[in-house]
Amino acid sequence: MNLSDLARDFQSEDECIAYFEKMRWPSGVECLACESKRISHITTTGKTKKIRRLLECLECGKQFSATCNTVFHDSHIPLRKWFLAIQLLSQAKKGMSSCQIGRTIGVSYKTAWHMTHRIREAMDAALGNYQLQGTVEIDETYIGGKPRKDLKTGMHVVRPKIPVIGMVERNGLMRFQKMAKVRSKDLRTMIAQNVSVTARVMTDESSLYDKLPLGLNLKHLTINHSQRQYVNGFIHTNTVEGAFGLLKRGIVGSYHRLSYKHLQRYLNEFEFRWNNRKEKDIFSHILIRAAKSNPLPYALLTAPEKDTF
Ligand SMILES: [Zn+2]
Do 102 and 147 lie in a common domain? Predict the structure, then answer.
């Protein structure tokens, strides 16, 4: 699906709602209160004269909308605009700024910012508890740290560098994870959680990787960058470095100011696109995930969180 397919297939809000219903309830709409499948579609006009399309349970009388309790919960933005935003964000290899998405679909920056975070929420944890298999390259990089002009004060501020660990299966799936500090023991825990003990791990010569979780240590191969050895036959970390390259170009080009708090969502976005690069219908895939994701109210998204620096 590309943008023109999207424009052709979803010309009205009704078509979008019908499609989302199909993604959310593949075997027919189910009441959110009593799970009955005896549902009728109704339209009401509220005080603002806006048409509301609701579902009404013929069993218990509950009225709800197709987007109720999903990531689109309580949104006043038409699904048609949501669909466009999802399409834009899922196809942009290096991401797309909220500014540009806002301009393209015709909403304010603040609205676009909230929308894109909710889309990232739907992209989150797509791998679940999956552990990376086969040959897995692991490396660390740092995001930020360059002076940036603060838009409010006009002063240049230096944000702390945030360490990010990349774990990438060769020809397969990957995971990016932000860390508060890079310490050997934290790395070990993270690798134990994300990499199968049957995998063969490749890293650079950094002493951070001297002690891997038991079982992985025996199959651990290193490449010595300090001696200008970048590829030694099949021992290399080119895949994970390529993934970091894409992430950094995206962050420089599209996402200029990333806080520690929100960084993981951006990482999830890059991870999701990488892991679904062969998926034919990534758009529907995100919609299905959006239907299963919890609401993410603006207040929760912007609530202060203590940075771990
Ligand atoms: Zn019911």
Answer: no
The answer to whether residue 287 is domain-embedded is: no
155 & 210 share domain: yes
Do 251 and 139 share a structural domain?
Answer: yes
Indicate the pTM of the whole model. Answer: 0.85
Q: Tell me if 130 is assigned to some domain.
A: no
Structural domain includes residue 96: yes
Q: Ligand 1 center to residue 44 CA distance, Å? A: 19
- pLDDT one-digit tens code per residue, 44-91: 887 777 888 999 999 999 999 999 999 999 899 999 999 999 999 999
Question: Letter for the amino acid at 219?
Answer: K
What are the pLDDT digits (tens) for 158-214? 767 889 999 999 999 999 999 988 888 899 999 999 999 999 999 998 888 888 887
Shared-domain flag, residues 164 and 256: yes
The structure tokens 């949501």 sit at 82
CA 52 – ligand 1 centroid, Å: 19
Look at residue 262 in the predicted model and tell me its pLDDT.
Answer: 85
Same-domain check for residues 171 and 260: yes
Pairing type for strands 135-143 and 156-158 reads: unpaired
| Span from the CA of 77 to the centroid of ligand 1 (angstroms) | 26
Ligand 1 centroid to residue 156 C-alpha, Å:
56
| Cα of 300 from ligand 1 centre, angstroms | 29
What would the DSSP string read from start to end of 39-104? EEEEEEE-TT--EEEEEEETTT--EE-TTTTSTTTT--S-HHHHHHHHHHHHH-TT---HHHHHHH
Q: How far, in Å, is the centroid of ligand 1 from the Cα of 20?
A: 20
Ligand 1 (ion): residues with CB under 5 Å are 31, 33-34, 36, 57, 59-60, 62
Domain encompassing residue 71: 3-29+66-125
